[in-house]
Specification:
Order of helices and strands: HHHHHHHHHEEEHHHHHHH
Shape: globular
Largest sheet: 3 strands, antiparallel
Structural class: mainly alpha
Strand content: under 5%
CATH architecture of the largest domain: Orthogonal Bundle
Distance between the termini: 86 Å
Number of helices: 16
CATH class of the largest domain: Mainly Alpha
């Protein structure tokens, strides 16, 4: 028999609606939609267990449906399983915070540990040596300039050359995510301190530091862009740090998009490393390169975590396997010794 909600008791469906509105305010729309799909799948499971989310009071929800939901997710991809578990666990915790829950956080964590698949650790893979070779090539601006087809195109070619050099060096030396670097304005940088404050992943404020070479490259680019910026009629501090220089932008100073950033990487990778490397190096590859460089230079996992702005040190630990040069050396000394004379 399906229980009816009393006049003073909210149903599971009503509380799910409130929970999703809270998620929408705190997280991205993409996350909210993913959580919505997770809760829809959870309600479908409840229905199979003769629990109508539209009629069942939320305070009657036990851990039994959660157990079944964990097991049902084994048919999903591992990443989807983890996301859906996070969403439904969050709903249970929301009920607890509203005084309607009967299941504790520790109980939910135990159920996930006992019944969910262990997520595999995906180690970051990127061609570090190729990125180093690319960065070496682009430091000489002449390598990027080429020969414009006509004088009218010469200015844009020069602007793109200086922009692309500054963009790639900054990605490699700061650990910016591509959308973060595209959102920068000229006034965001403290040139004396060599840093900027951004609102990064998870809507959290963070300090990002610049190297001398990245700041020199940015200043060279902005010097080339001075006439364009001056004619914009806008305050210099409000203009994008990295702008589009294509036919669609014309003489306007329009901010780059992440798509533009990916196109820059693809174009320069093909130019200097060959077409076969296009797609193997992305804007995010430079972030991997940055984290690994910090670990190699400091050997300090906590420093790397802070500079990379990783919420969990476990994320940073994924990079340690890429920096253990002593293990590499020992391995090759054992297995790759040149054979002596017979």
């Amino acid at each position: 028999m399906i229980p009816d909600a009393s006049a003073n008791s909210q149903t599971i469906a009503e509380l799910i609606g409130q929970y999703l509105r809270m998620v929408e305010r705190a997280r991205s729309m993409r996350t909210m939609l993913a959580y919505k799909n997770a809760l829809r799948a959870f309600c479908e499971l409840l229905e199979k267990k003769s629990l109508d989310a539209e009629r069942t009071p939320a305070d009657q929800l036990t851990d039994e449906p959660f157990k079944k939901f964990v097991e049902a997710l084994h048919d999903y991809a591992p990443a989807t399983e983890q996301l859906y578990l996070q969403a439904v666990k969050g709903f249970y915790l929301y009920l607890e915070s509203e005084g309607l829950g009967t299941v504790s956080q520790s109980r939910l964590t135990l159920l996930i540990r006992q019944r969910a698949r262990r997520p595999g650790k995906r180690l970051p893979q990127f061609p570090a040596r190729d990125i180093s070779a690319l960065l070496e090539q682009i430091q000489d601006i002449q390598h990027l300039l080429g020969t414009p087809e006509n004088p009218e195109e010469a200015l844009n070619v020069r602007l793109r050359a200086h922009r692309d050099r500054a963009f790639l060096l900054t990605l490699a030396d700061t650990g910016f995510r591509v959308h973060e670097i595209c959102n920068l304005r000229r006034g965001d940088i403290d040139w004396n301190e060599g840093r900027t404050v951004i609102i990064g992943k998870g809507n959290k404020q963070a300090v990002v530091r610049f190297t001398l070479r990245s700041m020199r490259a940015i200043k060279d680019y902005l010097a080339e862009r001075a006439a364009l910026d001056g004619a914009s009629g806008k305050q210099l501090s409000a203009l994008p740090l990295f702008a589009r220089h294509d036919k669609g932008a014309g003489k306007k100073v329009k901010p780059m998009t992440p798509t533009t950033g990916r196109n820059i990487v693809n174009e320069r990778v093909e130019q200097f490393l060959g077409a076969e490397m296009v797609g193997r190096i992305t804007p995010h590859s430079f972030r991997h390169y940055f984290v690994t460089s910090v670990l190699q230079g400091t050997g300090n996992l906590a420093v790397a975590q802070k500079l990379a702005r990783h919420e969990s040190i476990q994320v940073t630990e994924r990079y340690t396997h890429l920096t253990d040069e002593e293990l590499d050396k020992a391995y090759y000394e054992v297995f790759e010794k040149p054979e002596g004379p017979p």
